[in-house]
């Protein structure tokens, strides 16, 4: 009866791991499932030692050696979770951790663990099983008799602490607070569970507690993992919606431009021929001239729309946001000096972000120029640029002391060809928004009044779309 109950409890981590896999098909879920499988095998290994009333002792000994793969593979399985965690870090943050946790060390750790498992099948690892007094005088429990190389197994199991600590250290570098909290709780709670489980290594402390601890750990981790995965899916959906919106704009606008360009070319050709016709009177020539002006204007609109479409096509690469801002300030320095504008840059530690440097520089230059123009009639002309990381995003805030943007214009200011200026096509902010949407980010007006305007640019730090990919 004890064996059946304990075996059922041992399967709890496996069922929860499979549930996570069915609910959230992510790379992290795959790592979690692998880990939970070995946790279940570890506890099944303990459970069979309580099956003396049901199974033959030789069968029990065979199953014990078979299921021992669970406890032996736990250290590399935990390290595999840490390896997947590094996908959440930028290359700069993960640089030193990649020297410790990489596919080569993971392979070497797994190979070493398999060697320990093979030794487990020899007399050097296990000699047999013996009866000991279990928890209560009525419980009959078997306990392994170790061979001369048993210290390898014991020390290998203790190496799990190293895996836990490495995973815990790497988790502290994660920017996303939800992921950081999950990994911290995951590492600390399993460390506690492991410390209770280590008591199984001594005959005098061979207890049920490890199974209860593992079950509680599994249920707890399941719920916080569901919370994490739900948040990841929500973030991914928002990013994909912004990208898909820009793709749809490109498809629709490209088709429209193509359909307009053909008749426009015909109209332009015939208007050129008519303008050279000497038989036309003055009034007719004036009409043809108006047609040519209208055609030129339409052609200008098409060129601007083409510029708008191309702004959504990006070639992302690793770049330092602070460096791009400095370059933008250099390129606008003549206008800054001419208008006597003071620039205040908050040089916090910048981050390496995967972006299109040229397109992002275009966004920053446009925002700086807009701020300068908005302060034209102000005595105090200041542009403050602040960079900070928050959760999964890099935020760049541009604050000026300009005349502000009317509240009723906030929703329309990013629309193509909408402008409050006397000159210009009104494409600057719409192109900026398109560039950011193509990066999965966004631009928004935080506040604006007669004292000035604050605009925030947000760029995702973590490529959730890549992390959420289903393993092939």
Walk me through this protein's architecture.
Helix 10 (177-197) runs antiparallel to helix 11 (209-275). This protein has 17 helices and 9 strands. It has helices spanning 2-10, 12-23, 27-47, 57-67, 69-85, 91-98, 103-120, 150-158, 160-171, 177-197, 209-275, 282-310, 321-331, 333-338, 357-374, 428-438, 464-467; strands at 126-133, 140-146, 317-320, 342-346, 352-355, 382-390, 393-400, 442-449, 452-460. The strands form 3 sheets. A 5-stranded mixed β-sheet has the order 4-6-7-9-8, covered by helices on one side. Strands 1-2 form a two-stranded antiparallel sheet. It is an alpha+beta fold and 472 residues long. The model is unreliable at 422-426 and 467-472 (pLDDT under 50). The chain folds into 2 domains: 2-241, Rhopdopsin 7-helix transmembrane proteins; 313-472, Heat Shock Protein 90 (2-Layer Sandwich), CATH 3.30.565.10.
């Amino acid at each position: 009866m004890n064996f059946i109950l304990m075996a059922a409890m041992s399967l709890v981590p496996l069922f929860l791991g499979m549930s996570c896999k069915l609910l959230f098909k992510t790379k992290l879920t795959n790592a979690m499932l692998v880990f939970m499988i070995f946790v279940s095998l570890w506890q099944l290994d303990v459970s069979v030692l309580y099956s003396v009333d049901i199974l033959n002792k030789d069968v029990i000994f065979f199953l014990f050696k078979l299921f021992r793969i669970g406890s032996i593979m736990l250290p590399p399985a935990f390290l595999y979770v840490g390896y997947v965690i590094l996908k959440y870090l930028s290359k700069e943050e993960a640089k030193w951790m990649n020297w410790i946790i990489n596919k080569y060390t993971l392979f070497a750790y797994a190979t070493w663990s398999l060697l320990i498992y093979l030794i487990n099948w020899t007399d050097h690892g296990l000699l047999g099983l013996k009866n000991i007094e279990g928890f209560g005088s009525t419980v009959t429990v078997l306990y392994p008799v170790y061979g001369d190389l048993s210290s390898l197994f014991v020390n290998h199991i203790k190496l799990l602490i190293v895996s836990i600590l490495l995973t815990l250290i790497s988790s502290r570098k994660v920017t996303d607070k939800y992921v950081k909290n999950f990994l911290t709780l995951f590492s600390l709670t399993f460390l506690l569970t492991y410390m209770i489980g280590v008591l199984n290594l001594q005959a005098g402390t061979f207890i049920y507690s490890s199974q209860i601890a593992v079950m509680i750990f599994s249920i707890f981790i399941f719920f916080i993992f569901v919370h994490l995965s739900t948040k990841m899916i929500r973030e991914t959906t928002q990013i994909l919606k912004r990208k898909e919106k820009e793709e749809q704009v490109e498809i629709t606008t490209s088709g429209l431009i193509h359909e307009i360009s053909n008749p426009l070319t015909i109209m332009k050709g015939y208007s050129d021929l008519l303008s050279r016709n000497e038989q036309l009177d003055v009034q007719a020539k004036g009409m043809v001239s108006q047609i040519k002006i209208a055609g030129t204007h339409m052609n200008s609109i098409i060129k601007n729309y083409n510029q708008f479409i191309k702004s959504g096509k990006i070639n992302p690469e690793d770049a330092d946001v602070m460096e791009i801002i400095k370059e933008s300030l250099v390129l606008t320095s003549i206008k800054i000096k001419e208008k006597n504008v003071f620039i205040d840059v908050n040089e916090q530690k910048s981050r390496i972000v995967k972006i299109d440097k040229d397109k992002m520089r275009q966004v920053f230059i446009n925002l700086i120029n807009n701020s300068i123009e908005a302060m034209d009639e102000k005595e105090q002309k200041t542009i403050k640029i602040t960079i900070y990381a928050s959760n999964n995003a890099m935020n760049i805030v541009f604050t000026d002391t300009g005349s502000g943007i009317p509240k009723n214009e906030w929703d329309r200011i990013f629309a193509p060809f909408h402008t409050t200026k006397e000159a210009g096509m009104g494409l600057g902010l719409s192109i900026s928004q398109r560039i950011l949407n193509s990066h999965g980010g966004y631009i928004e007006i935080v506040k604006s009044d007669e004292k000035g305007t604050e605009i925030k640019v947000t760029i995702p730090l973590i490529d959730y779309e890549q992390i959420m990919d289903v393993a092939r």
